[in-house]
């Protein structure tokens, strides 16, 4: 099956840890995913990005993501709060969200699915395992699944 070449899909990664952001970007590169990757550092920035507010007020600098990789444990507004707001917003709720977090807590898994997350993945401990996860995500989200256009 060929990748969807109709339009480039932006991946938005919401994670407060600079090392985790760098590792995710490297793992995506290693998995041969050539998509545009953008980063925000907390739930407030995530919502500002999606709503084109503040420093993200230029749509050219904040293209609508096709997929969001969301950490749950972030300052200011955590991933759980941001997830709730995104899924309650009719303009944003169709954007697929994949939780990628260190939390293995059952309550976080259940709560995330109750709020409408598309997948819940516990961050792998090794870089090679993270690359494997990104390869699976690439295949599934960018070759198999049809993502709703804006």
From TrEMBL:
Keywords linked to the UniProt accession: Phosphoprotein
Pfam families from the UniProt entry: Response_reg
Keyword Transport set for record: no
InterPro entries, per the entry: CheY-like_superfamily, Sig_transdc_resp-reg_receiver, TCS_response_regulator
Residue ranges constituting the Response regulatory domain according to the UniProt record: 10-138
Gene3D superfamilies xref list: 3.40.50.2300
Modification 4-aspartylphosphate occurs at: 71
UniProt keyword annotation of Cell inner membrane present: no
Protein name per its UniProtKB record: Response regulator
Organism phylogeny: Bacteria, Pseudomonadati, Myxococcota, Polyangia, Nannocystales
């Amino acid at each position: 099956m060929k990748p969807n070449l109709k339009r480039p899909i932006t991946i938005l990664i919401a994670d407060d840890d600079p090392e985790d952001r760098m590792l995710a970007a490297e793992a995506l590169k290693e998995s041969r995913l050539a998509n545009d990757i953008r980063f925000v550092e907390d739930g407030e920035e995530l919502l500002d990005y999606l709503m084109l507010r503040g420093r993200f007020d230029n749509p050219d600098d904040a293209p609508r993501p096709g997929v969001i990789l969301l950490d749950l444990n972030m300052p200011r507004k955590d991933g759980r709060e941001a997830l709730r707001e995104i899924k309650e917003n009719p303009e944003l709720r169709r954007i697929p969200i994949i939780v990628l977090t260190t939390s293995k807590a059952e309550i976080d898994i259940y709560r995330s699915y109750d709020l409408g997350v598309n997948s819940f993945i516990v961050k792998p401990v090794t870089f090679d395992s993270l690359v494997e996860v990104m390869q699976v995500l690439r295949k599934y989200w960018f070759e198999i699944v049809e993502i709703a256009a804006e």
